[in-house]
């Protein structure tokens, strides 16, 4: 969906959290209050339905399996690579519609945010940015070898709730520190909230998108 009519000149591909679906963050778009002139297409894909080990094998929409709630228990390499292929296809679809890779943002919440980080850091073309909400960096130990050169300067916004008991703030902080140690530009924000979004966070996301997609400037050709 795009706030303005006409051909989109930017795209935000937004991944939902575990057990949700692509409709989960659709209501967020009007709350961002982007400029009326902004021609940003928001894409909200659905993860596949699959058994999730930590939930007693119950099948739900998930970008990858979670064995347990430790950082290592979330490192489903095969599942993450399958999700990478899926999200790369969404990026390719936007590119085929004429969107420059530097005008594409990968975003996500919780498991979706982890997927955005996983894919964005490995993507072969430079992206506009990565928004990673209430999440962590999967396969953290492989960051040095797996991260591609194209997105080493790509801005990353990480937001987390201080009262989050689903993805502990410490997991986000460890991930932030690993990204910073690798020389990646991370903007870190914490809020008085649990595993969800809050109004100040939405305001910060909107400001970040306006700045990095240059939505307050003249329309990008």
What does this structure look like?
This protein is of the alpha/beta class. It is 30% helix and 19% strand. The protein has 6 helices and 8 strands; from the N terminus they run E-H-E-E-E-H-E-H-E-H-E-H-E-H. It has helices spanning 28-32, 77-96, 111-120, 143-146, 169-181, 199-212; strands at residues 10-15, 40-43, 49-52, 58-61, 104-109, 129-133, 156-161, 186-191. The strands form 2 sheets. It has a 6-stranded parallel beta sheet, with helices on both faces. Helix 4 links the parallel strand 6 (129-133) and strand 7 (156-161). Helix 2 crosses helix 3 (111-120). The radius of gyration is 16 Å and the shape is globular.
Order of H and E elements: EHEEEHEHEHEHEH
Mean pLDDT across all amino acids: 92
Strand order, largest beta sheet: 2-1-5-6-7-8
pLDDT below 50 for ≥5 consecutive residues: which ranges?
none
Number of helices: 6
Shape: globular
Kindly estimate the percentage of residues that lie in beta strands according to DSSP: 15-25%
- SS-derived structural category: alpha/beta
N-to-C span: 19 Å
Please give the radius of gyration in angstroms.
16 Å
Using DSSP, what is the number of strands?
A: 8
Largest sheet: 6 strands, parallel
